[in-house]
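Dear Dr. H.,

I hope your travels went smoothly. While you were away I took the liberty of generating a structure for the chain from your last submission, since the lab meeting agenda had it listed for discussion. I wanted you to have the full record in hand beforehand rather than looking at slides cold. The sequence, exactly as received, is reproduced here:
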Amino acid sequence: MRFTEALTFPFSRLRAGALAVAFGVLAGAVTPALSQDNPLGLIDPAVISVGTMGDAKPYAFTTADGSFTGFDIELFLNVAERLGFKKEQVVFTGQEFSALMPSVANSRFDVAAAAIGTTDKRKESVDFSDGYLAGFLTVLTPDAGITDAAGLKGKRLGVVQGTLQEIYAEKNFAGADLVKFPDNNSAVSALNNGTVDAHFLDYEAAKDYSARYPELKVAVNIPSFDAPAGFVVRKGNDALREALNKALQAAMQDGAWKTLHEKWFPSTPMPDAYLPKQ
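The corresponding predicted structure, in token form, is as follows:
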């Protein structure tokens, strides 16, 4: 989402950091209370704190000046604006993927936004908004001998810990030796230096890496429409989840979602469910 800058002013970042300490240490999470002054149950009713990633292009990533951008970032800012929040009232903080959902569950963040697929297992600890994105799981490799899933047998396959790719690979690629990484950049670095033979990631991210490193090829695409991406919220915070759902539906109905999808995924089909109703 090469959208507007999503970083807030320094004092907001300091306030978010202080709140993180106040709500996330020692005894564990303290659930923010719903009230007339805090109807969405936010950690700070004046700010929405969002955990995301800095290297998940085109979903969520940082630019040279440290600003967050990408499809998920722009979409969330659009949704937040519909809830009455200005962009400077939305604080994005980058984390490793595996830490995002626990951080929401422990009230470190109000929301996590990083193309996070909705699964029954994940819903045991956090809640999800309605889905807003579906896509493909992809194998990226320089090995011309890997042309399908069977070609992964006996190969070292990189996955980012905590992702749908890790879950899928553990279930379906029994013959592959899985190597877990904290993020895509470190996995692709290992792929480029020969530490792993292939990397299993999201289609759009794979497309971006293959453009940056021509020796890497997209070898396998696996449809993943059964676990659409959603915004993650603290379990039981129905007020925030329902508000996000209402704003998401509005963004889909007035064409804002479609415009952002065309911007960030120009050659990718769009599900009818996410497009304006005639």
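Two observations you may find useful: The radius of gyration is 19 Å. Residues 1 and 70 are 2 Å apart (CA to CA).

With kind regards,
E. W.
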